[in-house]
Amino acid sequence: MKTFRKQQSNLAIAAQALYLLNLLALPGLSLLVLIGLLIKYKKTTDQLGRCHLYQAVLLSLWGLALLVGGGLPLWLLLQDSPTGITMTLLYLIVVHTGFVLLGIIGLAKAISGQHFHPSRRRCA
Question: How confident is the prediction along the chain (124 residues), in pLDDT tens digits per residue?
Fold first, then answer.
């Protein structure tokens, strides 16, 4: 059995940790830090870190779009009925939980030195 030594990347771990921090504790501020790191490390030689950073920013923006873009219209259309409020809360909880699970998987992959590709676009 061959054993491969995987290279750990502190940038990859930091990117996934900031992604989870954005979802769970400091929304907005962590997203700004992630975008700042993406700009700063755009041309780094750390391919694993750059890939995780790109995926974390991409997932953060998709999460923002789905939570606001899906939750706000539901709330505005159905806020008068108890069923509508329940449907809105259920939608927000399910979408948020899905993105948190993607973040946990991404962090585990970053710690183990593996790439993480939840979208179609793969890193080079």
Answer: 444 445 668 999 999 999 999 999 999 999 999 999 999 998 888 888 999 999 999 999 999 999 999 988 988 998 888 998 899 999 999 999 999 999 999 999 999 988 887 766 666 5
The Cα 92–Cα 44 span in angstroms is: 36
| DSSP secondary structure, 2-68, as one string | ----PPP-HHHHHHHHHHHHHHHT-TTHHHHHHHHHHHHTTT-S-HHHHHHHHHHHHHHHHHHHHHH
- Say if CB 37 and CB 15 are below 8 A apart: yes
Quote the tokens at residue 87. Answer: 């449907």
Which tokens go with 9?
């990347």
- In angstroms, the CA 88 to CA 92 distance is 6
